[in-house]
Design brief:
Strand order of the largest sheet: 2-1-6
Structural class: alpha+beta
Number of domains: 2
Radius of gyration: 17 Å
Order of helices and strands: HEEEEEEHEEEH
Helix content: 25-40%
Distance between the termini: 25 Å
Oligomer: single chain
Length: 142
């Protein structure tokens, strides 16, 4: 899973999130930056409150947090979710292939091929994918 800072950058770059079961997220700015939440049918649900999407909390919770608006949260996409986002972008742009290569120092995500390809690096595969997605969301083309 990517760290909160990289997730913030993706959100600021315009990565859209439609919360779904098993998604991870954080609630920054409420002294809970180090806590990771997961949407689950049993404790946190996505519901509309006053016409706005919100994540509601059910059951006992030590902080008595009833709900938080989705716009106040930061999605922490998994490696698979990041790859899917990149693939959607590349399909829409009819761009060339995507590859993830394990290197001695971490991972390299390669978009395109030959001299027209671009490489993005990260310690973990998810970091390499997130960096690639950040580039694509920023208007970068391959």
């Amino acid at each position: 899973m990517i760290d909160l800072d990289l997730a913030r950058q993706l959100k600021a770059a315009g990565l859209a999130w439609e919360p779904a079961e098993h998604d991870f997220f954080a609630i920054p700015g409420r002294d809970m930056d180090g806590k990771i939440f997961i949407i689950s049918e049993f404790t946190a649900l996505v519901q509309n409150l006053q016409g706005q999407p919100a994540i509601t909390f059910h059951g006992s919770s030590e902080w008595a947090l009833d709900f938080v608006m989705v716009v106040e949260t930061i999605w922490l996409p998994t490696e698979e979710q990041l790859r899917e986002q990149i693939e959607r972008y590349l399909d829409a742009a009819r761009a060339p292939e995507l590859a993830l290569v394990r290197r001695e120092s971490g991972y390299e995500c390669v978009v395109g091929q030959g001299s027209g390809g671009r490489s993005f690096y990260g310690q973990q595969a998810a970091d390499a994918y997130a960096t690639t997605l950040l580039y694509l969301l920023g208007g970068g083309t391959v």
